[in-house]
Amino acid sequence: MSTFSRRTPRLLALSLLLAPAVASCARSAAKPVEDQAPAAQLEKPPLRDTLPLATAQEQVSSARQNAIVLAARRVSPAVVSVNTRVRERVQPRTLWEQMMLPPGATQESAGLGSGIIVQSNGIVITNEHVVHGATQIVVTLPDGRDFDADVVGTDALTDLAVLRLRLPAGKKVSLPTAPLGNSDNLLVGEWAVAIGNPLGFYLANTEPTVTVGVISGTGRNIIPSSDDRGYYLDMIQTDASINPGNSGGPLVNALGQVIGVNSSILSTTGGSEGLGFAIPINRARRVVKDLLAHGRVLHAWLGVEVEPLQQGDLHRAADVRITRVVPGSPGDRAGLKAGMVIRAVDGRRVLTPLDWQAALLRAEIGQPMDVEVVSGNGTRDYRATPTDLPSESAQRVQALKDFQLITLTPGVRAERNISSQQGAVIVGLSDTARQLGFQEGDVILQINRVRIHSAEEAAQALQQVAGRGGVIYFERGGQVGVVQF
């Protein structure tokens, strides 16, 4: 009883609070349909702009100005078309052409690529294969201005070239330049913008075009083929479309900074399939610096040859082993020995011989490299300081007016993978010597009956046979050839 009396006031109060609502619901349920609210009030209210039209348009316009748009706008003014004229020897394809074509017949063809203005004085970066063999180069800016250009220098090993625009003397010319970024801290998956002039022969426009993708991978090594002039190592991979004509143009990050130079694609059709590759801009910086300062690129050399530790049809190499160390080379002075297994270089893992070549491509002459090798159950570090390539530092000997020679030394032999033990390596040729069939890199082994041991001996022997003719035996690609002149 007492319990009930304590609860009664609360229940009564609750019922009084609910009563009006219950009554209202009851009356609503009992009310005829025609007495309910007008149908217009039950319909879905019309949509209303929450913002004035002008404000909405401003917001949409602002959203369109995204990072990709701003990045392309920042770099595009400095992206140029590189137009070339190339004169090539005509190779007979049929017996009829062999009979009818005159010896040394040539034909002229046009080439096209892209480039990047990196200095306001007219310095342009492009690919070596874009300007290879060019007899004339014209660079076109996005605003339509044309400039003749000269080749400052090229490097087939890295597929890079530096051009200098011929600016009018005594007249100030305003040239846009592209900001350069850092290719050492790229993130796989971040935005990548490729800018250039794909298939420019079919377009009258001078403005570059833009494609967008992501950084698909870094440190990518492409297995070289027999017709490759250089190495495509430690490359940036992107799925931003790169097509013929894009070569030499920039790969750009979302900040509007150049992070790479578009160079190659892997494709079964000849067009973009989402497998594009760019040369890291940090490597391009060094190439530009060397070409401007020295006229050539200083490539690091250790005198160490390697091979995969594990080889097989279905097995990937897990390490590389040193097969040879050239006596007196930087690797020899550092204590590296044949048979050692290399684990890493400067903290970066080495799994294949291409990883080793990529490490040498990154290395700088005179800057020590830390080579980590397997030792017992652990590892041991060796510090080696690379030097210039032996063929570059070797003394040049001029023979007649047609040959520039160096002596074949163990270092040059290892550098160029030459089979012969002695001879003179051709490092420069006249047009006359080329017409005889010689190429740079050929090793003169014998002239008539005289065996050649040095560049000086070759020069003397050539002087003796000048005007009388003779026979020259040489090595090329491991094979011995003969030229009669």
Note down, in words, how this protein is organized.
With 485 residues, the chain is of the alpha+beta class. 25% of the residues lie in helices and 32% in strands. The chain is built from 13 helices and 25 strands. It has helices at 2-30, 39-42, 53-64, 67-75, 95-100, 128-131, 281-294, 330-334, 353-362, 390-393, 410-416, 431-436, 455-465, and strands at 79-89, 106-119, 123-126, 134-140, 146-155, 160-165, 191-196, 209-220, 235-238, 250-252, 258-265, 276-280, 304-308, 320-325, 341-345, 348-349, 369-375, 378-384, 397-399, 403-407, 424-429, 443-447, 450-451, 471-476, 479-484. The strands form four sheets. Strands 19, 20, 21, 22, 23, 24 and 25 form a seven-stranded antiparallel sheet that branches. Strands 1-2-3-6-5-4 form a six-stranded antiparallel β-barrel. A six-stranded antiparallel beta barrel has the order 7-8-9-12-11-10. Strand 19 and strand 20 form a beta hairpin. The longest helix is centred in the N-terminal third of the chain and has 29 residues, at 2-30. It is globular. The model is unreliable at 1-37 (pLDDT under 50).
What radius of gyration results from the CA coordinates?
Answer: 35 Å
| Global mean pLDDT | 85
- Oligomeric assembly: single chain
Structural class call reads: alpha+beta
Low-confidence stretches: 1-37
In DSSP terms (H or I, runs of 4 or more residues), the helix count works out at 13
**Binned strand content:** 25-35%
Q: Major beta sheet, specifics?
A: 7 strands, antiparallel
In whole angstroms, the N-to-C terminal distance is 135 Å
Q: What is the number of strand segments?
A: 25
Shape: globular
The percent of residues in helical segments reads 10-25%
